[in-house]
Amino acid sequence: MIKAEHSVFINRPVNEVFDYIVDPTKEHEWQEGVIESGYSPGSSEPGVGAEAFEKRKFMGRDMVSKLQVTNIGFQIFFICVIAPIQISKFY
Fold this sequence. Notes:
By secondary structure, this protein is mainly beta. It has helices at about 15-20, 25-30, and strands spanning about 35-40, 50-60, 60-70, 75-80, 90. Strands 1-2-3-4-5 form a five-stranded antiparallel sheet. Strand 2 and strand 3 (about 60-70) form a beta hairpin.
């Protein structure tokens, strides 16, 4: 199993940073390799069950993943529903 972690200091209020990084419509702005991201049709706001997608370049290949929000609060969890590789994201 491959685990990737990265830390960075951002001089902004924690709630503001959290709201930004968990927004699927912003993921392509800050996550390297993500070409396009957003909510899937029919899911336009965060909440348990909301679906999102991301299109990324990974090891030279295009990869499209469909994700679903499984928990929301101070942490948000996305699980991969459809993708060439199994991923989970925790913020």
